[in-house]
Amino acid sequence: MKYDAIVIGAGPSGSASAYTLAKNGYKVLLIERGSEPGAKNVSGAMIRESEISKVFETKDIPFERIVKRVRLIFRSKDDESEIVVKPKSKLYTISRLKFDKWLAQRAESAGALLITKTTVTGIEGNKVITERGSVEGDKIVIAEGANALLSMSLGLRRELKNEETVLGVKEVYASTRNEVEKRFNLQGDEGESWRIITDYPFPSAGFIYTYKDSVAIGVGARVDEIITMGIRPFELLDSFKTPYAELVKGFSLREYSAKIIPENGFPSFKPCEGSVYVAGDALGLVDPLTFDGIGPAIISGYLAGKAENCYSYSKMLFEAREISKVIKSRPLVKELLPNIGLYSHLVNDFLTSWVEGDFSKLKYYKSSLGKLMKHLILGLGVIE
Amino acid sequence: MRVEERLYTLRYKRDEKPHLEIKDQQVCNKCHETYKSPCITVCPANVYSFVEGKIIVSYENCLECGACKIVCPFNNIVWKYPRYGLGISLRYG
Ligand SMILES: Cc1cc2nc3c(=O)[nH]c(=O)nc-3n(C[C@H](O)[C@H](O)[C@H](O)COP(=O)(O)OP(=O)(O)OC[C@H]3O[C@@H](n4cnc5c(N)ncnc54)[C@H](O)[C@@H]3O)c2cc1C
Ligand code: SF4
Ligand code: SF4
């Protein structure tokens, strides 16, 4: 059997790619190993409508809640400060099973053929080998996610290192719609997202997202830190969760999950060779500053579908705002991570000083001014 | 909460053929002494454990997260996906 294009993985990047190709008249096969799209995938998750709408019509997007407030919390062992942001653009919380299914359906409606429960085990030239036999495609898009076995087997990228891999662990607690709204003071479709940056017991970043009738709580830390500290991922999650126990008290645990998040990738990973293209997490496109991976996955999948050759794909990736911000954020995050403690103290001290009307506390930070300036300059680099 | 209780929340379809395998047990013994078996520390599902000086792989509990293959200092794990979409199936993701 021969196809114009074969897309491997029906996550956000794969479905965006298959959709783009099918819409342009290509005969497309989309292969997914899970029992249905999304069954194997983990995210928080919060998405940005402005990114999704570059590829898909978002009218009927299956969102959980529209994020009305984002709480940014800086936490160290003894201090905590909170900033509440009211986003002006449209942010949604989503659950991956519904969202990924919706994306794959867009690809199917455009004419792509989706087959599930099928793992691709190898690629040889134009031949895609699965457990159920092999198929040929003029163009092959690998959208296999962070555990990029195929991309690695083709030498398009290497394995991630400990220090460039975050392990995210997550729990979903369910109750009723009413109870979620009461506890977070929400009305109707409104939702709230929390982002928690902490240096205790070691640098990690966590989230709390409101779904329709449930709440997702998760935390991510670099695997080198996990190994060095000898802390098990579930212990980290438990320690992270403790201050928020009241939020989900009486709710029942519905799901526990985990997944690695790449913090390095393109351009050091090769996006393309011959007729094989790589997109999304497989190419390491998660923004380490904003934890935005779904947006870049969709944009890169779309570009991989559109590109006529490797050169143009690479060029389009560099030119896409959503992708270039990922590349630019990495050096800043590398600087910020070991200094999370400094910042959570600084934010806390600044806010308390302001409230108390006495800024003398901040003089301790004078010695860090050089460092702060460096971070500021790197930060300005992220802004276009 | 114990890991086992968390794993009860999950739907698994067991692949009779293990999708994770240790290449060389001897290497694990060396690793245990020198590096304290990072696969055990990093695994969110308690898949790896040392029992009577031997590493045991409870592959049926695997969350397919991908961390163990990265942290293994000896690249001693054959890390594959369960076949035909077997393994874990998430409801929220
Ligand atoms: C805990 C956590 C929280 C996160 N929070 C957010 C967030 O709030 N917002 C955000 O934007 N991003 C978030 N991310 C990142 C986001 O999940 C990823 O960036 C995104 O899923 C990448 O999409 P993708 O399509 O590249 O890969 P994936 O979503 O991983 O999809 C890959 C697909 O390919 C399939 N597949 C893999 N190999 C094969 C094969 N050999 N054969 C057939 N099928 C195969 C898989 O089953 C899967 O369906 C989070 C990640 C984690 C782990
Ligand atoms: S990390 Fe690798 S070598 Fe060490 S015990 Fe685990 S599997 Fe064996
Ligand atoms: S992939 Fe994740 S859950 Fe599975 S054995 Fe490895 S570390 Fe454990």
From TrEMBL, chain A:
Q: Which Gene3D superfamilies match?
A: FAD/NAD(P)-binding domain
Asked whether the UniProt record includes Oxidoreductase among its keywords, one would answer yes
Q: Which cofactor does it need?
A: FAD
Per UniProt, the keywords (alphabetical) are:
FAD, Flavoprotein, Oxidoreductase
- Statement: the UniProt record of this protein carries the keyword Oxidoreductase: yes
Where does the FAD dependent oxidoreductase domain start and stop, copy by copy?
Answer: 4-50, 97-220
Q: What class of enzyme is it?
A: oxidoreductase
UniProt GO molecular function: oxidoreductase activity
The enzyme's E.C. designation: 1.5.5.-
InterPro entries membership: FAD-dep_OxRdtase, FAD/NAD-bd_sf, FixC-like
Q: What is this protein called?
A: Electron transfer flavoprotein-quinone oxidoreductase
UniProtKB/TrEMBL annotation, chain B:
- Work out whether the entry's keyword set contains Iron: yes
SUPFAM superfamilies in UniProt = 4Fe-4S ferredoxins
Q: Which Pfam families would you find in this protein's record?
A: Fer4_ETF_QO
| Location of the 4Fe-4S ferredoxin-type domain | 53-82
Q: Which UniProt keywords apply?
A: Electron transport, Iron, Iron-sulfur, Metal-binding, Nitrogen fixation, Transport
Q: What does this protein do?
A: Could be a 3Fe-4S cluster-containing protein.
Q: Which family does it belong to?
A: To ferredoxins from P.putida and C.tartarivorum, ferredoxin I from A.vinelandii, ferredoxin II from D.desulfuricans.
Instruction: Name it.
Output: Ferredoxin-like protein
Q: Which organism is it from?
A: Sulfurisphaera ohwakuensis
